[in-house]
């Protein structure tokens, strides 16, 4: 029990540190991307942290297996480098006892990953999808940052908006500029509408969002043509919102596991279900594999096999993702029997078993040859 507590304490501390570092790296990268979207007005800043909170279970289910794997490598690698493992081996501590010593953290991590992958992450993805749908349905000017241009659309149709200031008490935009460019598909003719007004405010009518402009003028015509029409107005309405459409069905990754089980005949649902199960199986397979992979020569140091072992882990995950892509892109009737992540796990289990059996077989062969 002293040995178990000694290993588990070090493993817990190392795994927490590695998880914290990996979460910071992953969250920072995703946060910067969302922050760029918020800067151009595609998402409200107030919804940014809520999206990141709902993304956290997805991050954790990917990071925790790798963190535990690296934690085992670092803890046992240090024990090998400082000859602690030599003493333990002399006292009769085998690799099987090391597995039993790590059974508690292994079981807890597997249960947490299973809970995240099968239940929490799909619900969180559904909430993220709902937030982005709400943000997409908002008007351009609801997300407009005063003093900077905001462009929505591309190619044949786009709208650029600008407001010099915003009076939040009165709900008025000050010195508003709107440029609307469209190209018809029939004759390829382009038309541009440019509006400038002293003030403007948003109004809603029958599910559509309009901008009520006061005291301004409008230019309309074809780009490159000097014959633009100019109209002065005291009050005008410009449509800036989109008609509310029917909500789209949730994506496959946002659907619950029970819903995927009912749709296993669909390639996307079948592939997503295999991915969730693979995340759960990944924890025990690679954690048990880390015990023999952590064996290093004292001259190598505790990091001697860290990079090769992590590359093995990434190859395993990458192979699962490749097979998942095959399953997702192949209709059920045309899918070969080996388009399944099960054989990937089977090969991984056989390789892990060989890591344990190879030293024993080699020792026996040496004993027979010497005899």
Structural commentary:
This protein is α+β, with helices and mostly antiparallel strands. Helix content is 57%, strand content 19%. The protein is built from nine helices and six strands; from the N terminus they run H-H-H-H-H-E-E-E-E-E-E-H-H-H-H. A six-stranded antiparallel β-sheet has the order 1-2-3-4-5-6, with no helix packed on it. The longest helix has 38 residues. The protein is elongated. It starts with a helix and ends with a helix. The model has no long low-confidence stretch (mean pLDDT 81).
List keywords for this structure.
single chain, about 375 residues, alpha+beta, six-stranded antiparallel beta sheet, 6 strands
Strand content: 15-25%
Q: Biggest β-sheet, characterized? A: 6 strands, antiparallel
Count of helix runs: 9
Q: Count every beta strand, where a strand is a DSSP E run of 2 or more residues.
A: 6
- Helix-strand sequence: HHHHHEEEEEEHHHH
Which structural category fits the helices and strands?
alpha+beta
Write the layout of secondary structure elements.
Layout (H helix, E strand, L loop, with lengths): L1 H38 L5 H37 L2 H7 L4 H7 L1 H35 L12 E5 L2 E11 L4 E12 L6 E16 L2 E14 L7 E11 L17 H6 L4 H27 L12 H24 L12 H29 L1
Antiparallel strand pairs: 1-2, 2-3, 3-4, 4-5, 5-6
Helix pairs in contact: 1-2, 2-5, 2-7, 2-8, 5-7, 7-8, 7-9
């Amino acid at each position: 029990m002293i040995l178990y507590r000694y290993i588990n304490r070090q493993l817990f501390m190392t795994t927490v540190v590695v998880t914290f570092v990996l979460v910071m790296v992953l969250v920072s990268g995703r946060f910067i991307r969302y922050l760029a979207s918020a800067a151009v007005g595609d998402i409200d800043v107030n919804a940014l942290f809520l999206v990141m909170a709902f993304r956290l279970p997805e991050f954790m289910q990917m990071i925790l297996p790798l963190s535990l794997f690296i934690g085992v490598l670092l803890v046992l690698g240090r024990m090998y480098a400082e000859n602690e493992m030599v003493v333990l081996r002399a006292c009769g501590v085998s690799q099987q006892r090391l597995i039993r010593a790590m059974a508690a953290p292994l079981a807890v991590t597997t249960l947490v990953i299973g809970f995240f992958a099968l239940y929490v992450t799909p619900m969180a993805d559904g909430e993220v999808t709902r937030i982005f749908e709400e943000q997409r349905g908002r008007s351009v000017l609801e997300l407009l940052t005063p003093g900077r241009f905001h462009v929505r659309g591309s190619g044949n149709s786009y709208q650029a908006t600008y407001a010099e200031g915003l009076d939040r008490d009165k709900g008025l935009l000050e010195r508003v500029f709107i440029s609307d460019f469209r190209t018809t598909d029939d004759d390829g003719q382009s038309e541009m509408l440019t509006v400038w007004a002293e003030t403007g405010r948003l109004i809603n009518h029958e599910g559509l969002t309009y901008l009520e402009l006061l005291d301004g003028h409008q230019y309309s015509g074809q780009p490159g043509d000097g014959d633009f029409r100019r109209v002065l107005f005291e009050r005008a309405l410009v449509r800036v919102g989109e008609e509310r459409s029917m909500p789209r069905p949730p994506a496959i990754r946002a659907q619950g596991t029970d819903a995927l089980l009912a749709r296993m005949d669909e390639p996307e649902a079948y592939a997503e279900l295999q991915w969730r199960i693979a995340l759960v199986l990944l924890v025990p397979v690679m954690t048990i594999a880390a015990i023999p992979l952590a064996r290093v020569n004292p001259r190598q140091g505790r990091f001697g096999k860290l990079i090769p072992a992590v590359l093995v882990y990434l190859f395993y995950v990458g192979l699962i993702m490749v097979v998942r892509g095959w399953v997702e892109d192949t209709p059920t009737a045309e899918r070969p029997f080996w388009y399944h992540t099960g054989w990937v796990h089977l090969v991984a289990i056989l390789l892990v078993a060989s890591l344990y059996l190879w030293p024993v077989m080699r020792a026996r062969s040496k004993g027979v040859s010497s005899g």
